[in-house]
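Problem: given the chain below (167 residues), write out its structure.
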Amino acid sequence: MKRKPDNRIIDKIRNNPVLANLLLDETSFSDIYIRIAEKKFKAGMIIAQEGGKSSSMYILLSGKAEIIKKTPSGDLFNAGFVFDRDDFFFGESSLIKDDFYDFSVRSETNTVWLELPGDKFRTFAEDNPSACFPVVMAVAEMISEKIRKVRKDMMTLYEALVHEIKS
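Solution.
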């Protein structure tokens, strides 16, 4: 049974930096819409665990969540809070291939997330390759940008280490 269209969900899909790239007519949009599930999490629940398998893309529909990162020594630190107004999402690379989370996400308040399982997206993409190609390109650009940032951060750390050793 198809669920009734919800304008909040439609707006989140159409405004998401990844999914907004889908080249869809109304029928194709309906096909992707029905593959997206609403997931509710109570305050304090873990949505994604650092190091755990990432097989879906999540978009925050409502509420507030905390991003948690683990240091190399195993200490946890708060990497920030995200709100529904921030259009926060994660797991976009799992649309292409299952991956692993590099941070944890915990509900700070009761939250509602939109979940698009990667396998459902890939099945849709097989039937609609030209519509989905821009999504793949958007994900590739995001990954490329993350790699550039990591390289820059590595150089900053290297320079700080060299400066510390010299002083």
